[in-house]
Each structure stands twice: as structure tokens, then as C-alpha cells.
Design a protein that fits this description.
By secondary structure, this protein is an alpha/beta fold. It is built from six helices and seven strands. The chain binds glycinamide ribonucleotide (GAR).
Length: about 190
């Protein structure tokens, strides 16, 4: 059984979808891997609290306790490597990672981004998609490379942008599709790892 480590910063709903898929709670979202640890950079992450309640191994590596990005990433890598994962999954992990960290996990570090990349890398994707007049928006699972929100695209989900959509309405529509997309994209990647 392959091990997955998930990194979260916030609510962790994508992490929950991946954990549920790994527990085979829904046949359509079956993932033959084990989530061996959830790591967060924020003590107040609801995702971290949920993982702890589930009895999953959890770690807090606060970026505030580290003077540099390199020092933070080094500590993060120590915690990750202790789990010997096949795959490291960023699920709403809101820290920019150093090139050294990214290189260390090349090919086995994936992210989900709430836009149809290569459109709208970075933050505030839903407001930008609405303001640009997009008729469709969505989410992308991609390999993580040193360039932010680039890297090979592993899967995408598309949703319509509806007339009068506010960013938070579009975000909710996209997020519900992320929960289907991410476990599937991981399941497709796992055999090659
Ligand atoms: C998701 O929409 C994810 O795509 C986005 O943060 C949200 C996390 O939600 N990620 C990024 O913006 C990464 N730059 P979750 O914590 O409920 O999974």
C-alpha cells in the first residue's frame, strides 16, 4: 500500500475527500493508498483538527517558527520524509515552496489550483475569472514545479460561470468538483509512482 502525506493550511475539504477515498467510503472515489499523515503550517487549520479527530497522524510545522523559507521547508521535509510517502499532496496549502523543496519531491508532489490553468495562476482566481467574462471556470490538478501553478496538468474539472455569480458562489461550485477531481487524479497517478 502506497503512503500519501497531505499538506493543508485551511479547511481541508479536499484532504477529507482524499481520506474518504482512501477508506473506500464511496466506490466512485476509490483510492488504493493510505493517508499516513496530515501536516499543516497553521495551528488554527480546521483540516488539521479534523484529521486529528479521525485519528490520523498529524504534525504542525508553523512557518512563524522559522526565520526563512528554506528553514521552514527543511523542517517540513524532515516531517514528510519520516513517513516515506510515495506522494505528497498539497490540498489548500498556502505557502510558496522553495525550488530545493520542489526538486526533492519532483514527480511526486501535486497541487490542486482553483482555476483552469494556465489561466489565472496565483490568488483570487474566481473574482478574476468573473471579471474576465469567462463562461467556464474550474480546477486543475498539476505536478508542482519551481514556477508557481505551472507543471504538468494531471486533470481538470470544468464548471459554468453563471450570470450574476459572486466569487464565493463560483468558489463553492468549483470546490464541490475539486472533491471529485482530486482523488481521481491521484488514483490515476499512483500506479506510476
Ligand atoms: C481549494 O479551492 C484549493 O483549490 C485552493 O484552496 C482551496 C482549499 O480548500 N488552493 C489554492 O488556492 C492553492 N493556491 P480546502 O482547504 O477546503 O481543500
Amino acid at each position: 500500500m502506497k503512503n500519501i502525506v497531505i499538506l493543508v493550511s485551511g479547511g481541508g475539504s479536499n484532504m477529507q475527500a482524499i481520506v474518504r477515498a482512501s477508506l473506500h467510503e464511496n466506490w466512485a472515489q476509490k483510492l488504493d493508498a493510505r493517508v499516513c499523515a496530515v501536516i499543516s503550517n497553521r495551528a488554527d487549520s480546521a483540516g488539521l483538527a479534523w484529521a486529528r479527530e479521525q485519528g490520523l497522524a498529524t504534525e504542525l510545522v508553523s512557518h512563524r517558527d522559522h526565520a526563512t523559507r528554506e528553514a521552514f521547508d527543511e523542517q517540513l521535509a524532515l516531517q514528510i520524509d519520516a513517513q516515506t510517502p510515495s506522494l505528497v499532496v498539497l490540498a489548500g496549502f498556502m505557502r510558496i515552496l522553495t525550488p530545493g523543496f520542489v526538486a526533492r519531491y519532483a514527480g511526486r508532489l501535486v497541487n490542486i489550483h482553483p482555476s483552469l490553468l494556465p489561466a489565472f495562476p496565483g490568488l483570487d482566481t474566481h473574482r478574476r475569472a468573473i471579471e474576465a467574462g469567462c463562461r467556464f471556470a474550474g480546477a486543475t490538478v498539476h505536478q508542482v514545479t519551481a514556477e508557481l501553478d505551472h507543471g504538468e496538468i494531471l486533470g481538470q474539472a470544468v464548471v459554468p460561470v453563471l450570470a450574476g455569480d459572486r466569487p464565493e458562489q463560483l468558489a463553492a461550485r468549483v470546490l464541490s468538483q475539486e472533491h471529485r477531481l482530486y482523488p481521481r487524479a491521484i488514483a490515476a497517478l499512483l500506479p506510476s509512482l
